[in-house]
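Notes from the 1:1 (GR / supervisor)

We went over the backlog. Supervisor wanted to see one worked example end to end before approving the batch request, so GR pasted a single chain during the call. The sequence is below; no edits were made to it. Supervisor asked that the structure be written out right there so they could see what the output format looks like.
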Amino acid sequence: MTQTRECACGQATVRDEAALWFVRLQEPAIDAEERQRFDAWLAQHEAHRDEFQLLHTLWAATDRVPKARLQALCATPSPSPSIRRRPLLRYAVAASVLAVAVGLGLFSGLNQPAGYSAEFATAPGERRHVALPDGSQVDLNSRSRLLVRYEKGLRSVELSEGQAMFSVEHDSSRPFVVAAGPGKVTVTGTRFDVRRDAAQTWVAVEQGTVKVQGRDAADSDFVNLTAGLGTAVDARGQVAAAYAVDPQALTAWRSGKLVFNNASLNEVAAEVSRYRDQPLRVGSEAVGRLRLTSVFKADDTDALLKALPSILPVAVKTHADGSQEIIAR
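Structure output shown during the call:
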């Protein structure tokens, strides 16, 4: 069923809830339980995401609002009941949020971007959506860990493991830099996917342009990627030439799908292991070279293992420790 923009509880209530969550999330630290409640609220309805995104956008815009004007907004009286039904209420709600924020000292300077630091992680089989203070959005895949630091002139992100899809809010004054193992990705506003594996880092662009380079490379040494292009950075920080990719296939994990297109069983085992508590191994080099083309559900890798022997000449052996191995049949 297609979601509508209005949810059953009413849009005004959604705006109030979004404002409350926005203020809570500006606190220096919130516990995991509170974060889970927020994630659940955000996922309940499209209207929740829209209203929360609006507050992020307005928050970022305050960096360009003169101090006197911002103080005037914060002093604006609450709208009358008749005005509450109008779309302009969202700006009144935003002004209320700003008033609370200023009162709590959440701005590091009214004419400077606020500092921000946070860490996010996902367990095996878990996916998570993260809304950042500048309006940027991040989707984390299974077994991923992300450290975010915002400061004047720079938005810095460290993907220490796993995979993430970034939708970056444009800000030419503060580049968005993703460090992932031996590689580094720099953008001002775009949509792209970064995956950090043990041997290399993969980057694919769905929209916009990104600059990919080795983490310690000179500023002039980089590869530009536009929509539909990808690259890989090896363990030495060497960036491969850009090549065509299918961004939809590469980011199918966001909708809970595992897409294999002529992938070796070595690649399949490595990918499936990301979604399981115990690793999936391949019994021999010959088995690892077998190829698979199919689509499975990421949250039901047991179904993949059950189907595999009917697709390829293999069997799946379960060991005493709970791990499993693909062997020749």
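Supervisor's comment: The first helix runs from residue 11 to 25.
Batch request approved.
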